[in-house]
Amino acid sequence: MSTYVYGIIDAERELPDGLAGVGDPPNPVRALRAGGLAAVVSDCPEQLRPKRRDLLAHQHVLAEAGADGAVLPLRFGSLSADDDAVLAVLTDHAEHYRSQLGELDGRVEYNVKAAHREDDVLRLVVSENDEIRALNEANRAAGGGSHQDKLRLGEMVAGAVRAREEQDAKILRDALGSAADRQAPGPESAGWLLNLSFLMGRDTAAPFVESVEELRRAHPHVDLQVTGPLPPYSFVRPAPEHVS
Amino acid sequence: MTVVPAQQQGGSGGGSSGLYDVLELILDRGLVIDAFVRVSLVGIEILKIDVRVVVASVDTYLRFAEACNRLDLESGPRKDPGLPDLVGKMTESGAKGKSKGALSGAAETLSEAFKQGQDRAGGEEREAEPARKSTSRRTSTRRKEESE
């Protein structure tokens, strides 16, 4: 029976009773203590797959484990051969993980994603660029314009929108970066004009969220999504031996 | 600690929308410990979406040209080229349309792909509807679907 590992907390901390882990029915979550640390674990179900239920369980366990103290979240799906192997990892790298728990204590991650609202950004680039506006009007007058006319307009619009993406990303990065201790780029595959995670003290989260709200008001063509507080997924570092 | 979108977003709701917003973090971030193995993510490979916000292609150009052609430029005050501050008013007014086009479709794509991933993973949990309600086009979205 392999052991599913959710995260690492200080050994002094207790987990809430009845915490439900991955699996169906959910496996009970327990703590394995060594080196002044506690690994938050459960038995791993056979054939664990990344299903909604299990992703939610992973997230929920980490949220609970981090509710009143620091937690080092592991990536989804981390399995150990058995409990002893988990204890060995804690013992071998106790200093590294303890120092990270210290750094991250009282801190939370907020993830911000931004994308353009299409009609709004198009309206913006058409109104701001005389050449685009003129070409658009000419195409309209010609019932849409020829294939070449459309391509020419579309290429100019695409270029203007791309420039606007860079411009807006910089505005957001500059405005939000100052409110956070650290920042880390989100995974790049999702296609946002901005996808950034910020680390900040729990008590500075409110001003941060307020500054996002101000940006929303100032840039209504930008769709801004903020998620948090989260366990510091983007700000944990592997033990030095594990750097690949 | 309950994870919720820090702000209510216009119209988007759903109790578990937070999951879609953090999915990529759960799967792509977090501590990796070499001594542990990671569970196979077969069935979720579809989440590796390759999206460019604006793709430089003929299709994109034609789509933008047509979008501009049908764009309601009258929904805000007419732009006077000499008065740039009017632009702000115009976009504010325009934002009331709450339109979400292809450019902002990534979250929906993610949640949709997630649902498809589940379906592939044995057809379980079909109650997992995406929390996003928008049904916008996303012709600029290129999805790289990998077979299992």
Structure description:
The complex is a heterodimer of chains A (244) and B (148). Chain A is α+β, with helices and mostly antiparallel strands and 244 residues long. Chain A is built from seven helices and nine strands. Chain A has helices spanning 52-65, 83-92, 94-104, 118-128, 130-141, 147-177, 205-218; strands spanning 3-10, 30-34, 37-43, 72-73, 78-80, 107-116, 182-185, 194-201, 222-230. In chain A, strand 2 (30-34) and strand 3 (37-43) form a beta hairpin. By secondary structure, chain B is mostly helical. Chain B is elongated, with a radius of gyration of 20 Å. Classes of the chains: A alpha+beta (244), B mainly alpha (148). At the A-B interface, strand 1, helix 1, strand 4, strand 5 and helix 2 of A face strand 1, helix 1, strand 2, helix 2 and helix 3 of B. Strand 9 of chain A pairs antiparallel with strand 1 (4-5) of chain B. Chain B: Pfam families: Gas_vesicle. Chain B: Residues 73-148 are annotated as: Disordered. Chain B: Gas vesicles are hollow, gas filled proteinaceous nanostructures found in some microorganisms. During planktonic growth they allow positioning of the organism at a favorable depth for light or nutrient acquisition. GvpA forms the protein shell.
List the SSEs and their pairings.
The complex is a heterodimer of chains A (244) and B (148).
Chain A: E1 3-10, E2 30-34, E3 37-43, H1 52-65, E4 72-73, E5 78-80, H2 83-92, H3 94-104, E6 107-116, H4 118-128, H5 130-141, H6 147-177, E7 182-185, E8 194-201, H7 205-218, E9 222-230
Antiparallel strand pairs in A: 1-3, 1-4, 1-5, 2-3, 6-8, 6-9, 7-8
Chain B: E1 4-5, H1 17-28, E2 37-38, H2 58-70, H3 85-95, H4 106-120
Main features:
heterodimer, A: alpha+beta, 5-stranded antiparallel beta sheet, B: 148 residues, mainly alpha, 4 helices, 3% strand, GvpA-like_CS (chain B), gas vesicle (chain B), Gas_vesicle_GvpA (chain B), Gas vesicle protein A (chain B)
